[in-house]
Amino acid sequence: MKLTVNGKPANFEGDPDTPILWVLRDHLDVTSPKFGCGMALCGACTVHLDGAPIRSCSTPVSAAVGKKITTIEGLPAKVGKALQDAWVAEEVPQCGYCQTGQMMSAAALISKNPNPSEAEIVGAMDGNVCRCGTYHRIQKAVVRAGKAVAGAKA
Amino acid sequence: MSKQIKPVLRDQLESSARRGFMKSTSALGGALVVGFHLPASNAAAAKADAAQVANAFVKVDAKGGVTIMCHRSEMGQGVYTSMPMLVAEELGVPLSAVKVEMAPSAPVYINAMLGGQITGGSTSVRDAWTKLREAGASARTVLVAAAAETWKVPATECTAANSVVSHKSGKKLAYGALVAKASAMKMPEKVALKDPKDWTIIGKQKARIDTPAKVAGKAQYGIDVKKPGMLIAALAQAPVIGGKVVKVNDAKARAVKGVVNVVQIADGVAVLAKDFYTAKKGRDALEIEWDNGPAANLDSLEIEASLRTASVNPGAVMRKDGTGAADIDKAARKVEAEYELPFLAHATLEPVNCTAEIINGECHITGPIQFQQGAQYGVAAGIGMPPEKVFIHTTFLGGGYGRKLELDFQIQAAQIAKAVGKPVKMIWTREDDMTHDFYRPLSLHQMTAALDANGNVTTFYSKMTSPSVTARAFPPVVQNGKDPFMAEGSENLTYKIPNVQIENVIHDTGIRVGYWRSVSNALNAFAVESFVDEIATATKKDPVALRMEMLKGDARSQNVLKLATEKAGWGKAAAGRALGVAQMECYGTHSALVAEVSMVNGVPKVHKITAVIDCGIVVHPDQANAQIESGILLGFSSGMKNAITFKDGHPEQRNFDTYTMLRMSEVPAIDITFVQSSAAPGGLGEVGVPLVMPAIANAVATLTGKRVRKLPLLQNV
To answer: What is the mean pLDDT of residues B345-369?
Structure first.
């Protein structure tokens, strides 16, 4: 199977039912998406498929053929930097395990809507679990990153 | 408490030695020695590169580079930053210039408050407080001495800061330039520490050192480890913990394309492949006949009934003040109540996993580990290797909460690696993790207060019946039915009451139990702080006034209670809302918490949590705040919604669909304040957990007139 991961071509010859998560982690050495539940319940595995957030633990790699898989490493520079800067400025991560998934959900949100309301943030982020309870800081970081993206656009 | 905990590891290691797990007990002799000597592996490295100033916690190389060994596991609580802060403060280097390495398993890294190299018990900063500052000061002292010798001036005329030694004449030498000379000098054991007014790092806002890697997806967790030629393992374990394989037919598993091997170990059958999906697919194709063992028929109703039956047994007396409970039946009036808490899973977001590599007669274990010596000795025993040949490499932990103190997963990974002769990364699914946990014990609390004619509490009696984690994990520590960890949260009762009796009944329900963030503090605090409100209701007293009265003479406890209730607007709740309060001391820290709650269609909604914390000196203010917030939300999440129940010996909850996690939409507003103090630091990692549920239950009782005495609250309201 011909795949595109973070803008680069990649090949996978295994079982087409293999979830994207395990193709990325075990075959392509992209370990930023994390395994949390295997049932699309926690969001730790969130990546983008053609720019839309998906749960890679529950999406077969066959669904990614002809589409672009993006992880935190491959976000457009402006959005990626805005998110990382905001996450650092708000000191969001504790254990940090969920945060790349959180940031991928946030990336999808602020790419379309850089000035989201609180309800829009909650709506976009509610599928991502943080067991350390960093939710308040995530909310602030999303607002901050959105402002940076909007500012960069202007 | 620390006195009682300290022998834990020593006893455990001694019993391992007695069972022949260790070739010699020499390691034990040094096990409790705390000093700055280098562990063996570092000492060898130090010799090879003589030009460095090094002790067990810090090394300065000839280029002035500073590496600090982080000897506690980073599981979110911030030790990867707070430990280096303590060293860097005294060494006189900016935190931004420091490189951090995870320390190996070595006696020098033992936590003196716990007796092992353990991250737990909210002890990291408390244990390190003097030790790490002295380690930094010791290295700084020889650097200053080297400069003084170079300049032929008294060391007292020199100062050190920003990696430079300066003389009052204006001469300066960078640390790197002093290393060659300083490395030949003996580091002093006794050193002078900075005056707190001169601190530039402790108590200041500093960026977490691990954040950039974590937000870039580059931080390495156990599950991210990769070794050359490594296979990935999925392990089939008995559906009931303690069960054993009777018969296995692995033909269908081996037929799965990509399955490389199938091996049996003590705990089950492992299927190996190059990726986890294939390994799991192979595992799911195994046909195994299990003997589910003694717990095969357990279910929750029976377990709860057995706990109640056991509760009539006489309890071990953990604390007795005055005449204890002797005169309780002579009281003018009694208040009685029972509280119940369920089993809980740890549910760290990173499921259990571990990587093992056996190479050149050495076993290297890399993973999310909270108890390095336990892993070292446990693996040694598990694969029949001398402990000195087992090396522990600690990654970042995607959550710990006590689950990763356990040794099951390191031993399993090592046994699989041994069986296949290749490096192996074993990964558990979420279902594996939830169904093979060491669960937080369920508990039954029977409370009685005796009141005099004026409504004053004259006797306070608490009897907790629960499984004992310590009896399983460290059996020699439990003597005469006393598990010191079970009485946390009740034994340390802060209220001044003439007669107090705290009892524990240990009852093994057949379900495996483990330490869970804040251990028994959360269990007993729910009972004690709910009960204090019940006493207030019975005596028609204000819950805060009653607490203030019973805390007379305890300035720190009264202060946090006063501040928290003032900030939360005690007595001024908006229409339809109520405030509930709770307070306690645990881990050397005083805290008070107020919950603001309303009822929406019969369901409690928590609007705001206000907490005031007095932990003495706050080493890392922003992350101290983050820890309290994290603890509050873990206590809230679990206490509102979670329970593990058993049917036919196995947990009925297997994933986050039935054991639900707190989400952003459910999080209340949180306001946390720290009291300014110059007292030595108290613990913080677990302090946030215990008070949130009793405070909420107290508010709910005010709103509804109905007391919820059983958790999870949402299932029992």
So the answer is: 98
Q: Which chain A residue shows the shortest CA-CA distance from B635?
A: A133
Q: What is the pLDDT of residues B177-199, one digit of tens each?
A: 999 999 999 888 789 999 999 99
Return the CATH number at B374.
3.30.365.10
Strand B98-102 versus strand B66-70 pairing type: parallel
Q: Which structural domain, as residue segments, surrounds residue B229?
A: 222-293+352-427
Beta-strand relationship, B287-291 and B66-70: unpaired
Q: CB A88 to CB B276 under 8 A?
A: no
d(CA A53, nearest CA chain B) in Å: 17
Check whether residue B620 and residue B684 sit in a common domain: yes
User: B567, B685, B711, B524: which is closest to B619 by C-alpha?
Assistant: B685
- Average pLDDT of span B633-645: 98
- Whether B664 is in a domain gets the answer yes
pLDDT for the residue numbered B27: 28
Greater confidence (B491 vs B33) lies with: B491
Residue B2 pLDDT grade (very low, low, confident, very high; cuts 50, 70, 90): very low
Q: In B379-423, which ranges are E strands? A: 390-394
Helices B79-91 and B124-151 meet at what angle, rounded to 10?
30
Query: Is B630 strand, coil or helix?
Result: helix
Per-residue pLDDT tens digits for B192-237: 999 999 999 999 999 999 999 999 999 999 999 999 999 999 999 9
Nearest to B215 among A31, A84, A95 (CB): A84
- Per-residue pLDDT at B42: 55
- AA letter at B620: H
Question: Which secondary-structure segment (H or E) carries B364?
Answer: strand B362-367
Q: Cα separations (Å) of B498 from B21, B334, B504, B584?
A: 49, 15, 20, 18
For testing contact with chain A, the best of B257, B275, B428, B654 (most A CBs within 10 A)? B275
Residue B377 sits in the same domain as residue B228: yes
Taking the CA of residue A55 and the nearest CA in chain B, the distance in Å comes to 15
**Is residue B493 predicted with pLDDT exceeding 70?**
yes
With CA atoms as reference, the chain A residue closest to B257 would be A15
Q: Is the pLDDT score of B682 beyond 50?
A: yes
Domains of chain A (ranges; CATH) run: 2-73 (3.10.20.30), 75-153 (1.10.150.120)
Contact list, B663 vs chain A (CB under 8 Å): 126-127, 129, 135
Question: Long-range CB contacts (< 8 A, 24+ apart) of B552-555?
Answer: B552/B496, B553/B496, B554/B494, B554/B496
Interface test with A, best of B215, B232, B659 (most A CBs within 10 A): B215
**A64: three-class secondary structure by DSSP:** helix
Domain boundary among B180, B215, B250: B215
pTM score: 0.95
- At B16 the pLDDT is 44
How far apart (Å, rounded) are the C-alpha atoms in residues B191 and B207? 28
Is there a contact between B316 and B481 (Cβ–Cβ < 8 Å)? yes
- Chain A, 34 to 93: residues with Cβ < 8 Å from chain B are 34-39, 41-42, 44, 71-73, 83-84, 87-88, 91-93
B409, two tokens: 């997963």
Mean pLDDT of B431-440: 98
Q: Once rounded to an integer, what is the mean pLDDT over residues B580-607?
A: 98
Tell me the count of A-B CB pairs closer than 8 A. 182
Average pLDDT of the residues in B298-304: 97
Question: Are B68 and B202 part of one and the same domain?
Answer: yes
| DSSP calls for B214-244 | HHTT-PPBGGG---TT-EEEEEEE-SSTT-E
Q: Does the beta-carbon distance from A15 to B274 stay under 8 Å?
A: no
The pLDDT value given to residue B28: 27
Report d(CA B246, CA B227) in Å as an integer. 33
Which of the two residues, B128 and B2, has the higher pLDDT score? Answer: B128
